[in-house]
Amino acid sequence: MPRPAELEPIGAAALWVSYFTAYGALVERAGMRPGDRVLITAASGGVGRAAIQIANQIGAVPIAVTRQSAKAESLLVAGAAAVIATDREDIGEAALRHTGGVGADIILDAVMGPGLAELSRAAKLGGTLAAVGWLDPRPASFPANPSLTIHRYMSFADMVDPVTARRVAAFLAAGVRTGVLRPTVDRVFTLDDIVQAHRYLETATPAGKIVVTP
């Protein structure tokens, strides 16, 4: 895919995989539409921030979820309509409060694990959950919302389809061109420092993508 002219190489490196994942899960699988209330877990990461921007591009309402209340302000600045910090509030109750008592139309989840049952309570009846990661390696609990439709999404399966790849690339290029999509780079390492880059990824909670340059 060509690099959007508006992005330097480092910004472009932070675009393709995370934004493809967010778009594919939200639009291709969950069918996100304007006005949908979208709950986004692990919102501080690369996919989470991409999802916030893509939701705004389409006209949906992104509600960011983070474990640390200290990150709330940065997520609001990043475009979230509201932030739920799970270190100080119950995710189900907070989601109902931010959606007028209905629940989220779509949940984009990168965590899974035992918290899935509680997370499912944040969705409306007949809502959709798109799982894009497994940050919590423990077995996932059974969803408490029996009407929830669940999609397990891996972007690499769509990337090998040229029709889908061109459709996603056109959407991302338009978003970059209009300034709605702005890849967030947390830190840049050189290839000589690849070990430190991996250690940073494993021990820190990056606010965006980590990019490695030659």
UniProtKB/TrEMBL annotation:
Ranges where the Enoyl reductase (ER) domain occurs: 1-212
Molecular function GO labels: oxidoreductase activity
Keywords recorded for this protein, A-Z: NADP
Keyword ATP-binding: no
Top-level taxonomic group: Bacteria
InterPro entries: ER (IPR020843), NAD(P)-bd_dom_sf (IPR036291), Zinc-ADH_QOR/CCCR (IPR051603)
Protein name from the UniProt record: Enoyl reductase (ER) domain-containing protein
Organism: Phytohabitans houttuyneae
Lineage: Bacteria, Bacillati, Actinomycetota, Actinomycetes, Micromonosporales
